[in-house]
Write a structure and sequence with these properties.
With 527 residues, the chain is an alpha+beta fold. The protein has 3 domains: 206 residues, 3-Layer(aba) Sandwich (Rossmann fold); 103 residues, Orthogonal Bundle (Tyrosyl-Transfer RNA Synthetase), CATH 1.10.240; 158 residues, Nucleic acid-binding proteins (OB fold (Dihydrolipoamide Acetyltransferase, E2P)). Strands 9, 10, 11, 12, 15, 18, 19, 20, 21 and 22 form a 10-stranded antiparallel beta sheet that branches. A 6-stranded mixed beta sheet has the order 1-6-5-2-3-4. Helix 1 packs across helix 2, helix 8 packs across helix 9 and helix 11 packs across helix 13. The N and C termini lie far apart (67 Å).
Length: 527
């Protein structure tokens, strides 16, 4: 039997891979006297995805350090956050979260008997807690409440009062769960400092706060339940995992905003203390890394290829997901999943014998539109009006795209430019060169014709998803079938607004960083 870790070793286990700790001295003082009491809370909103393995991995660290760990299923918070979980689905979603989080913990070998599981509504509706909410609301300013929730509560044009209550409830949870510390992502920092400021005003102790970095999603931005392409669902089939990883942003040599590398660093390495890059013998064979920094250095120096990295993560990730898939294959949990997350886009089946026996929605989420970076531009060898471009869309290799922009956009204005690329058209040969996408451009209505490529917001990464407002969810088609004319039907309603924003039926084209626009062609069409 291994000897119990000492205070310094416990401190290392508790804080490794964290981005920030508020209250380090207090943490060490407690560890010298007794075990730390800590909680992690999750609002029961969208389906948990593979990024949830990051806090799960830290919970494993906390248990190794001897901590008393509570997991809070924050059902009331889910409702207060702009009603992300409707009241009628709250119980079902909380039940789903309980099952899936426990399955994740079992998958990485965490003993459930050492954990305490609590639902927010078990104590947040009590007389004492409600009175404390009123007491807190009498000392908290509207400005501080809004600022505290800015990174966590969904921001809308006309915010609800419930969003202002959210940070106060999270602060009070620390007192009512009787913990020394709260653990969460660094996006919770403003709520944590809010709690440190206001809990003492009610006569309660200021707590320690431990913060994980935000792990980039597969598109290079934050992994999000509402952005389908940015995350891998815990119940995704193996073929879906392969498809999403294939699309993932993993530029050769680029270690910034690399969701694939981040997953290795924050999940796979802490669990196994090693990572095996699987390669064919002709490329050097398999290589085992026992230090993440060495792997990152090899990737930066292009010793490790993005394709090999993705394939290796796919194998390791499926090992984690297999027991979860197996558990949720039971009729009871299948029924729970469908009830907690009903599919809003499922059309009612047509009557038997009807010509339209396979109705399908023509919606913008079926288009695979991504931010691309133009790596090179050359004139087509056999067509003076065409460019042949190499465009990075976050895949292992750039795509070849042929576009008729020669008479509208000088070559030097395209080089190294960010563009908006439709990626799931069927590849077709244009004067002998196969084009693997379409650069979306604004066109003027009158003569002489003017054309401007659409501009993603500044700061976007190649491969980041572009979506239409209100259609963030949903999987794009693998390939748009030409006979169905899905793009053509949607494109008929593409327009440029009077403030030069790209729109479909007056809904904006967006990335995680803002609106897609063009330089000057107000009221133009988009093709």
């Amino acid at each position: 039997m291994e000897p119990a870790p000492g205070p310094q070793e416990k401190y290392h286990l508790i804080t490794r891979n964290l981005q920030e700790v508020l209250g380090e001295d207090k943490l060490m003082a407690i560890l010298k006297e007794r075990e730390l009491k800590i909680y992690w809370g999750t609002a029961t909103t969208g389906k948990p995805h593979v990024a949830y393995f990051v806090p799960m991995s830290k919970i494993a660290d906390f248990l190794k350090a001897g901590c008393e760990v509570t997991i809070l299923f924050a059902d009331l918070h889910a409702y207060l956050d702009n009603m992300k979980a409707p009241w009628e689905l709250l119980e079902l979603r909380t039940h789903y979260y309980e099952n899936v989080i426990k399955a994740m913990l079992e998958s990485i070998g965490v003993p459930l008997e050492k954990l305490k599981f609590v639902r927010g509504t078990d104590y947040q509706l009590s007389k004492e807690y409600t009175l404390d909410v009123y007491r807190l609301s009498s000392v908290v300013t509207q400005h501080d409440a809004k600022k505290a929730g800015a990174e966590v509560v969904k921001q809308v044009e006309h915010p609800l009062l419930s969003g202002l209550l959210y940070p106060g409830l999270q602060a009070l949870d620390e007192e009512y769960l009787k913990v020394d510390a709260q653990f969460g992502g660094v996006d919770q920092r403003k709520i944590f400092t809010f709690a440190e400021k206001y809990l003492p005003s009610l006569g309660y102790t200021k707590r320690i706060h431990l913060m994980n970095p935000m792990v980039p999603g597969l598109t290079g931005s934050k992994m999000s339940s509402s952005e389908e392409d940015s995350k891998i669902d815990l119940l995704d089939r193996k073929e879906d995992v392969k498809k999403k990883l294939k699309k993932a942003f993993c530029e050769p040599g680029n270690v910034e905003n690399n969701g694939v590398l981040s997953f290795i660093k924050h999940v796979l390495f802490p669990l196994k203390s090693e990572f095996v890059v699987l390669r064919e013998e002709k490329w050097g064979g398999n290589k085992t890394y026992t230090a993440y920094e060495v792997l990152e250095k090899d990737f930066a120096e292009q010793v490790v290829h993005p394709g090999d990295l993705k394939n290796s993560v796919e194998v390791a990730l499926n090992k984690l997901l297999d027991p979860i898939r197996e558990k949720f294959n039971s009729p009871e949990l299948k029924k729970l999943t469908n009830a907690a997350y009903p599919n809003p886009s499922k059309a009612k089946p047509a009557e038997k014998g009807s010509k339209n026996s396979e109705p399908e929605d023509v919606v913008p989420s079926r288009l695979d539109i991504r931010v691309g970076k133009v790596i090179s531009v050359e004139k087509h060898p056999d067509a003076d009006s065409l460019y042949v471009e190499k465009i990075d869309v976050g895949e292992a290799e750039p795509r070849t795209v042929v576009s008729g922009l020669v008479q509208f956009v000088p070559k030097e204005q395209l080089q190294d430019r960010l563009v908006v690329l439709l990626c799931n058209l069927k590849p077709q040969k244009m004067r002998g060169v196969e084009s693997q996408g379409m650069v979306l451009c604004a066109s003027s209505v009158g003569e002489p014709r003017q054309v401007e490529p659409l501009d993603p917001p500044a700061g976007c990464c190649a491969g980041e998803r572009v979506y239409v407002e209100g259609y963030e969810g949903g999987e794009p088609d693998d390939e748009l079938k030409p006979k169905k004319k899905v793009f053509e039907k949607l494109q008929a309603d593409f327009r440029v607004s009077e403030d030069c924003v790209a729109q479909w039926k007056q809904k904006n084209f967006l990335t995680k960083l803002g609106r897609v626009s063009c330089k000057s062609l107000k009221g133009g069409s988009i093709s």
